[in-house]
Amino acid sequence: MTRDKVDLSFFLNGQRREVKLDPMLRLSETLREEFGFTGVKVGCDAGDCGACTVLLDGRQVCACLVPTARINDSSVVTAEGMAGNGFLSRVQHAFLRHAAVQCGACIPGMLAAATDIAASQHHPTREAVMHGLGGVLCRCTGYQNIVAAIMDAGQDPSPIEMPDGPAIGVSLPRTDAIDKLTGAANFGADAMPENTLWLRAVRSPHAAARFTIGKLDDLYVQHPGLHKILTAADIPGNKCFGIYPDLKDQPVFAIDQIRYPGEAVLALVGERDALAAISDDDLPIVYEPLDRIVGMADARIKGARQLHAASPGNLLIEAALRKGEGAVENHPHTATGRWTTGFVEHAYLEPEAGFAQRVDDRLHIYVTTQTPYMDRDEVALIMGLEPEQVRIIPAVCGGGFGGKLDQSVQPMLALAAWTLADLDRPVACVYSRPESMAASTKRHPAQIDARFACDAEGRLQAMEMTADFDTGAYASWGPTVAGRVPVHGSGPYHLPNAHIQARAYYSNNPPSGAFRGFGVPQIALAHEALMDDLAEQVNMDPLEFRLKNALRAGDHTATGQLLTASAGLDQCLQALRPHWHAALEAVAKHNEQNTILRRGVGLGCMWYGCGNTGMSNPSQVRVTLSADGRIILYNGAVDIGQGSFTIMRQICADGLGLPVAMIDQVTGDTDLTPDAGKTSASRQTYVTGKATELAALDLRQQILRLANADEHAVISISDGIVRIGETAVALSRLAADEDGVVLCGEGTFDPPATALDENGQGEPYGTYAFAAQMAMVEVDVELGTTKVTRIVAAHDVGKAINPAQVEGQIQGGIAQGLGLALMEEYLPGRTENLHDYLIPTVGDMPPIEVILVEDPDPNGPQGAKGVGEPGLVPTAPAILAAIKSATGVRVHQVPATPDRLRAAILNQRDLGRQT
Amino acid sequence: MANYIRPIELPDALAALAERKFFVLAGATDFYPAQVGRVTDHDILDLGGVEALAGIERQGDYWRIGAMATWRDLVDADLPPCFAGLKQAARQVGGPQIQNTATIAGNLCNASPAADGVPPLLCLAAEIEFQDQAGVHVLPLSEFILGNRRTALRPDQVLTAILVPTLLEQGRAGFAKLGARSSLVISIVMVAGLLQLDEQGRVANANLAVGACSEVAQRLALLEAELIGQSDLSSVVRPEHFSHLSPLDDHRGTAAYRLDAAATITKRLLQDLSS
Ligand SMILES: Cc1cc2nc3c(=O)[nH]c(=O)nc-3n(C[C@H](O)[C@H](O)[C@H](O)COP(=O)(O)OP(=O)(O)OC[C@H]3O[C@@H](n4cnc5c(N)ncnc54)[C@H](O)[C@@H]3O)c2cc1C
Ligand code: FES
Ligand code: FES
Fold this sequence. Notes:
Chain A is an alpha+beta fold. Chain A has 4 domains: 1-162, Roll (Ubiquitin-like (UB roll)), CATH 3.10.20.30; 197-290 and 352-430, Aldehyde Oxidoreductase, domain 3, CATH 3.90.1170.50; 518-610 and 762-914, Aldehyde Oxidoreductase, domain 4 (2-Layer Sandwich), CATH 3.30.365; 619-749, Aldehyde Oxidoreductase, domain 4. Chain A is built from 21 helices and 35 strands.
């Protein structure tokens, strides 16, 4: 519905405008669509995320909550208007210097809030910054560098030098930082073609139902702008998709049956206004609700309704590990417990978005994704096309964390663009926040029973674990979780005997998929709490207990894998030791005087295999030298904010022995770049990084051969001449291919790994990351509230290619771990917005100190391993241990919300009174 | 086609409302979130242009908070001590962007059980001034909000000002909000208080109100009465003082927890205000 436009006069990014505009259109929409300022991001349209924050007369406001009419006689500034004469503003420059940008989706909003703060105070206090940023969420950074940047924004910007020498180990700014700071970066929803058609999915309000779709013809008559209603019947190829070739069980559009609330039933394709005028209630879909399988307990009941024909007992998968015959009972000290966790939402700031276009007999899909090649192959199967007929062009990705590893808009858009070929128009789709939350995958809820045993000296002897997971309506990455859990169930400790079982059950819940850590964060809650319990039993300090049992090079893991190198838990714990002792002392001193605000400190450790579990997962990279002297890195590793575009450049530069500024890059387009696999499993730095190093070395060798030079020769390239030591070669003399390429280096790396046998034995990963974190908390025992006051995180990353980025990954992981511990629980049908589903705000984050331990991996590029997921894993265990230290209460269910913690505290007091 | 009007004079607004139904728009922060994924097809009367509704000022025996005054305006205004609680509430409504645009009046009209403005204004014995073509009406806040999302306002009426009597001006006021995170959070429980102490530091008058524990925030009449003449205030608080509340059990907190927390927060607030 439109309104009469009104005359408005205002300044927009310094320019005076007099325009007729729709008075009630959200200012965010007006800025994006009328003026093309797509730096204004839309994360929720409800004031909950702050991504749309702009300056209105110098004050921060949510553009999604401002009627366009309100800008009359006012001035509006967006990220696009902050830089002047080609120079970043002070605030923008401070963000660049402080590595405050990751995915970038929150950054324009952050900049508006920051500019408001900086305008009123030249050197704002930490408190002022925290208050001023309280209305903008960031899911990537843990806010640390953003706060530091704003506090430092009064400084004069100093130029950032690019190193001439080695680039590895230098905290270079991200290659895409400036685009993200100036609003130029195009995310999934930012580059919609002018003449595009739109697509809207219609989703089931029921969790479990049979349904029929009635006659649709009338709708076309009533709504001339409606061009097509797509259902499962329209799909030419596979009607279902899924991560595993033998488990493609998730329909693009539901077929007869609804299995979770928010499942797509059909899609409307047409002109935008026409779609808006159709309400879901206008559609002739008749649902016949079925009994809902609410969770694992329901799914396992004998005689429970079976959700998938191929899965009796609703059991998707079962995986086990068996090492040694020794049982837990045979040892003097045992500790036992059960832990439960709920669904967790990725809550990337950028909802799913993209567009597809048919180009002759091919499909081009521009989309926000973590995995262009899997998208290509999946879309091809669904459309009955050859993979080469599908081109995926990844948009700048506004956060993924595992949630953009599954199909979202891709298949629907592909089908629409293909089916409506005669209209010859692209088709676009942007999920609303509630749609994104209802439709997308979640972290698996878990129920974990675990027991660990040690001898009188505190040496771990045996462990058992049964971990059950709610995989929701469809398989998605459920098998990956079931695969990772047995490997990691022992924790990062040496155990002669380990018996672990992992099972995943279907239910009428959103599909549980990949989420930073694939089940490992859940089981870490169990093994870490039990380490503390055993340490207490044998009267050892929890840090020394862990140190005694830490996996080290030379040890065999629970899968029987010999760790030959790069197992740095020992060093991580040593690095924490002084902090730990100081914290213990501070906490004890405080608690002597305080019975209500109790402080505590706790530890969490983890290990994490980098790459796929017991499976091949190669990456290929190409580096070329052109006749004009350009070096181009063809990098297929999608940067979802974690920084792979920058890191690969650094590795490439050092492999070639050339300055990093010389490396141009072509990134992640399935037509242009070789397959670098998916951005998940903490694999890109390690796997694609290694492939990049190999490709760069290959090209270097070819260059050296031009002069028969030895491998230490210095290379330089300028003015079309390559100099190798004393020798100069004109590139024009070399044969060039049709793209002008004279030399091409190639690199492929597949981490050494073997499949696991029926006892879960084998060598599932090429390398493991290790970490130990310490959390300090203050618990208000009368209210059950927990404030995390400090985190120290020691991580063995092999080699920090870009230390600032590594720290950023860890800080961001910690924020998500804190959310998991204290506030995040997705309730299907009830918390499908960022108002009810809470993620940490700036004020929830404590100062974080990161300690980088570099125990190099012999295979990784310059020794590097992955760090994407490890940051998150130890945090929740450390926080729960700190709560125990503060209150004496062991929390067995996360999130430890105030009401749950208060109930547990009261419960413990009752027990205390009875005994 | 939907309508949009932006009157400059209040009588024009009232005349329009007398004629037909409009959605009355103030800061729009409750309006837009209810429209996510929907077309906003309401006929809108935008109060943004009505000068007479802006500002916060003293008029005779009342402080007058104009209907278009934002939370930020309130924080920035130079006000007597009794407003300390309302100011603390203002700094905790949503985040800075919300505070910069949302109005206090809108918070009352929206009448959410968790509206942070209501308990402090109940303690201030605020009255609500609203107008229609027939004239000006005034109701105590406690009679203005009738239930969850229900007020005494008819569709042809506009809230014009919140009136706070100057009688209590020098009282000590405070506000405490309990939420599950640090900002951008809906209260699990919030408590506001306003105390008058005599020379000996004993309570001469106590106004206390609890929000998010009933459909509409409630005063704690029994406790208020028992506090009179007392100086060790926190020891007075007993569970019975909260027995007239009927909190919800939901994902933000259980009912039992809300009552328990309300008592704790009340105790602490009294301690703060009397020290
Ligand atoms: C992200 C976010 C966080 C929030 N956090 C909080 C919070 O912490 N605490 C809290 O209490 N609230 C919170 N809110 C709710 C909201 O901001 C407040 O209720 C706000 O004060 C409403 O004011 P407004 O001017 O925006 O109202 P509007 O949205 O403009 O209007 C709200 C309602 O009041 C009516 N109305 C407004 N003014 C008048 C008038 N003068 N006459 C007649 N009718 C009128 C409107 O018709 C509408 O029904 C939050 C909202 C968002 C989006
Ligand atoms: S889009 Fe405006 S606050 Fe989220
Ligand atoms: S960088 Fe803040 S949300 Fe990604």
